[in-house]
Design a protein that fits this description.
By secondary structure, this protein is α/β, with parallel strands linked by helices. It is 48% helix and 9% strand. It has two domains: 23-197, Rossmann fold, CATH 3.40.50; 208-399, N-(1-d-carboxylethyl)-l-norvaline Dehydrogenase, domain 2 (Orthogonal Bundle). An eight-stranded mixed beta sheet has the order 3-2-1-4-5-6-7-8, sandwiched between helices.
């Protein structure tokens, strides 16, 4: 019997990704304007689009001031600053994006709005153009479903402020062309970034793995084990973190932090490990959003400051061990489920949120068996699925081996 000939595979043809490629950024907020600056610094002609023309003009004026300060400090030459600013063109009509080889969307975290935008973009751009979303919590696959060619849609999750923080999570969706992740990895390196490749799962790497830094710290507060200044001081003094969880939540915005936690929790079908805190919910409901509202966990008025406190070493190390055990467990689970490599998980946490060490490398210092013991004690005491150890942590502990 003679079989039918196989259909020839059609490989998508993507734009050449060098500095001659025109880049469009949609959304002239802090993140969008920062991404536009990064692309322009890498030599690309950039179109910065926002439906509000005044938002683009405001962003370009702010960029001019930033570049002028860099010139004053000797970090840029004037002609370099002029070149960066001059390569960014304002736009308030989507048709002005025509000819772009890469479009990066950085708008509101609303799936319906993003899907409509991507569907609209397909009708304006060439077949070789790549569509990227800067989403931090939504599914890249779900956004791509709005497109006739979902294989050209990918996640490029920058961290704020984009010109300063090096990490970019490169997130292929379920049907993204396999070649695209590798090509954007190379492009991000050319932009001076540290890219990590991860699966399209809730929170990607950083927003998933970092959840216990906030959640377990709030839990320690709720139990009355320590006050907020003590918890913050312990994690800075004995853990080496740059900011404590409560001051960091106030900086991020309690509304944003709570929304990300809630989104990850719901996306994981209400897994208890990601359950949001009522304490944080009440902060949001009361309008205590952090620095931007003048009050959060701490006050930020003219006569207010974050309290400084001395932390007893025993209590400080207890707090650190509990929070760190939860962070390590989350990193181990991300590795267990193949979300990213051990190297990229550690890179993501050091380069994206400035952790003092990669969590898996940190776990190796005392060994997986130590952290398994901490988690099993917590689970035995509380009887909650919140503290269930990752299967990978158990396996490594049994084998006496390590993550790296």
């Amino acid at each position: 019997m003679i079989g039918l000939p196989a259909e020839p595979s059609v490989q998508p043809i993507f734009v050449t990704m060098d500095s001659t490629m025109k880049v469009a950024v949609i959304g002239a907020g802090t993140m969008g304007s920062g991404i536009a600056q990064v692309a322009a610094q890498a030599g690309h002609d950039v179109v910065l689009f926002d439906t509000r023309r005044e938002a683009v003009e405001k962003a370009l004026a702010a960029l001019r001031k930033t570049l002028d300060r860099l010139v004053e400090k000797g970090k840029l030459k004037k002609e370099q600053a002029d070149g960066i600013h001059g390569r960014i063109a304002p736009a308030s009509d989507l048709r002005e994006l025509t000819g772009s080889g890469l479009v990066i969307e950085a708008i509101i975290e609303d799936l319906g709005i993003k899907k409509k935008l991507f569907a609209d973009l397909e009708g304006l751009l060439g077949a070789e153009a790549v569509l990227a979303t800067n989403t931090s919590s939504l599914s890249v696959t779900a956004i791509a479903a709005a497109c006739a060619k979902p294989e050209r849609v990918i996640g490029l999750h920058f961290f704020n402020p984009a010109p300063l923080l090096p990490l970019v999570e490169v997130v292929p969706g379920l049907v993204t062309d396999p070649e695209l992740g590798a090509r954007l990895n190379v492009l991000m390196q050319a932009w001076g970034k540290v890219p990590v490749l991860c699966k399209d799962t809730p929170g990607f790497i950083v927003n998933r793995v970092a959840r216990p830094y906030y959640g377990e710290s709030i839990r320690i507060l709720e139990e009355g084990i320590a006050a907020m200044p003590t918890i913050d001081a312990a994690l800075k003094t004995y853990g080496g973190f740059r900011m404590g969880p409560f001051e960091l939540m106030d900086l991020i915005g309690n509304d944003i932090n709570f929304t990300v936690t809630k989104t990850v929790w719901e996306a994981f079908h209400f897994d208890q490990r990601y359950k949001p805190s009522l304490t944080q919910q009440r902060q949001v409901e009361s309008g205590r959003l952090g620095r931007k509202s003048g009050r959060g966990y701490y006050g930020y008025g003219d006569d207010e400051s974050i309290p400084s406190t001395h932390v007893d070493m025993v209590l400080g190390n207890t707090i650190v061990e509990r929070v760190l055990a939860m962070l390590i467990n989350e990193a181990a689970d991300a590795l267990f489920w193949g979300i990213a490599s051990a190297k990229d998980i550690d890179l993501a946490m050091t380069k994206g949120v400035n952790y003092p060490k990669g969590l898996l490398a940190w776990a190796d210092e005392q060994g997986p068996a130590h952290w398994l013991d901490v988690l099993e004690r917590l689970q035995a005491e509380y009887g909650e699925d919140r503290y269930r150890p990752s299967p990978l942590l158990r396996r490594l502990a049994r084998a006496g081996t390590r993550f790296h």
